[in-house]
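Query structure, 517 tokens:
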């Protein structure tokens, strides 16, 4: 028996919007939580499996890439199977992949599990957005998007804190079992509060478009991940970028000609939706890129434990819980572009502050910098969703929701990969520059002599035959140079994020309503 959202709204009355919202937010929180919770576990996973940073970043990138691709399947899946069945199926896949991740015997199985998790999450995020947007009346949709934003950004803000506690007290594997309980609750509530298959004939699935899109994303991210290690002019990297470009052009050509496109490119013909999509791309880059960099910085440079690195983000999570409802209500009363511009400036300022971090930066100072950025994100997301979907025809809302989420997640996937490359590249450049300064200079020679004297006073005997002091002095000096190069690499990466957010002020300004509006 088919049950529509209107039937359920009539059955449960005004409270239905909260029942439907709570049901889909359970899955959203579980899946977005998993998008970033693994970041605090990276050092432990790298140590257990002997992974380098170039491969470890795939634990985040694979999740985001798979999520990006499957987001565009949501509109078709809802039309073909209905909201309820699509939601439950995605939760089942997520539960199974979470168990696989927690029991992974090696890094390859772990990456596969993360990919499956991301694929399930890609279906649920736009589905939740459509359900909430339609459950609330137009005058309350800003509030609705504020509630939706709680799951999309608050979960990754709090995830590292919970993950750090699990890792310090149990194992990194336990972070994979944090999401399934939320999924089980969502499965229990879905048959009661979500609609079944909508009336009408479902459209055909755009398999060719999905394949071309998946190839483009996978080729781009693979080339980015291997550029620093293989060489940017190597056959593998240039071939990856070429394949990504060809697949992208093929995707655009095909989508403009097929009767049932996986992504309706017509939504981008609306100028304000197009610039909102550009801002969404940068928002994803900042959200997931910074959430990847910050735990890695405080653990590898400042020596924080996973719990401490997670607690660093806790104040930001609490502040977000306050900012989101306020930002949602404000977006019902103010032009969205004003809040978006304010949020972009705040996040760029936060990144500029973090570009000054070093080994001695105080815990609460760094936490305060993160709070400033999260306030900015809290202002952006509800306003961006409302501003983007408000300018579309009602018939295009499902496609628009998928498209805006697609751009945000694509920004996240590319952002993690690109920032990982920038971090590795800049660290290597600084290390080379510092090492050059240590060769043959009077200051370097004086430093080496002083270190040798300190070792003698410390009771470390020297051996003329093996030159023990020289070996230890050079080893110690190399570790200092490597640590300082790492700090400078992180600084450059945070600075890059700030520059990108300042650039985003241009398209955000173009979201201003026309005078007649």
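Result returned for the query:
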């Amino acid at each position: 028996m088919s049950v529509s959202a209107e039937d359920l709204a009539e059955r449960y009355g005004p409270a239905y919007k909260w029942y439907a919202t709570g049901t889909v937010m359970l899955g959203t929180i579980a899946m977005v939580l998993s998008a970033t919770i693994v970041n605090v576990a990276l050092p432990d996973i790298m140590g257990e499996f002997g992974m380098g940073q170039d491969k470890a970043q795939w634990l985040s990138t694979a999740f985001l890439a798979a999520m990006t691709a499957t987001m565009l399947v949501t509109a078709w899946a809802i039309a073909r199977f209905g909201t309820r069945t699509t939601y439950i199926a995605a939760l089942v896949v997520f539960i199974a992949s979470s168990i696989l991740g927690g029991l992974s015997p090696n890094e390859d199985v772990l990456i596969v599990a993360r990919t499956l998790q991301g694929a399930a999450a890609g279906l649920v995020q736009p589905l939740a957005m459509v359900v909430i947007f339609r459950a609330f009346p137009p005058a309350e949709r800003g509030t609705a998007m504020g509630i939706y934003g709680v799951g999309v950004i608050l979960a990754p803000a709090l995830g590292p804190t919970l993950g750090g506690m699990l890792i310090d007290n149990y194992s990194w594997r336990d972070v994979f079992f944090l999401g399934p309980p939320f999924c089980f609750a969502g499965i229990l509530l879905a048959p009661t509060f979500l609609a079944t298959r909508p009336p009408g004939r479902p459209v055909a699935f755009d398999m060719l478009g999905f394949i071309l899109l998946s190839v483009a994303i996978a080729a781009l991210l693979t080339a980015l991940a291997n550029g620093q290690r293989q060489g940017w002019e190597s056959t593998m990297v240039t071939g990856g970028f070429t394949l990504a470009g060809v697949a992208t052009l093929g995707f655009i050509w095909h989508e403009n000609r097929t009767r049932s496109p996986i992504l309706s490119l017509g939504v981008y013909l609306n100028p304000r939706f197009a610039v909102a999509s550009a801002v969404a791309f940068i928002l994803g880059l900042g959200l997931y890129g910074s959430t990847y960099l910050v735990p890695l910085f405080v653990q590898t440079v400042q020596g924080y434990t996973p719990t401490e690195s997670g607690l660093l983000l806790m104040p930001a999570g609490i502040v977000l819980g306050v900012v989101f409802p306020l930002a949602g209500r404000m977006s019902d009363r103010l032009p969205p572009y004003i809040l978006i511009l304010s949020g972009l400036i705040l996040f760029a300022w936060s990144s500029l502050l973090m570009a000054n971090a070093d080994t001695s930066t105080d815990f609460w100072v760094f936490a305060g910098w993160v709070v400033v950025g999260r306030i900015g994100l809290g202002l952006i997301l509800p306003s961006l969703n409302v501003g983007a979907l408000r300018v579309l025809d009602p018939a295009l809302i499902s496609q628009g929701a998928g498209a805006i989420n697609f751009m945000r997640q694509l920004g996240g996937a590319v952002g993690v990969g690109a920032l990982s490359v920038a971090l590795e590249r800049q660290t290597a450049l600084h290390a080379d520059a510092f090492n050059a300064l240590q060769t043959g200079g009077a200051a370097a020679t004086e430093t080496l002599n002083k270190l040798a004297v300190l070792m003698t006073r410390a009771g470390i005997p020297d051996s003329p035959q093996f030159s023990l002091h020289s070996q230890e002095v050079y080893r110690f000096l190399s570790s200092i140079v490597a640590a300082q190069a790492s700090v400078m690499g992180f600084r450059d990466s945070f600075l890059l994020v700030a520059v990108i957010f300042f650039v985003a002020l241009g398209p955000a300004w173009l979201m201003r309503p026309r005078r007649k509006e």
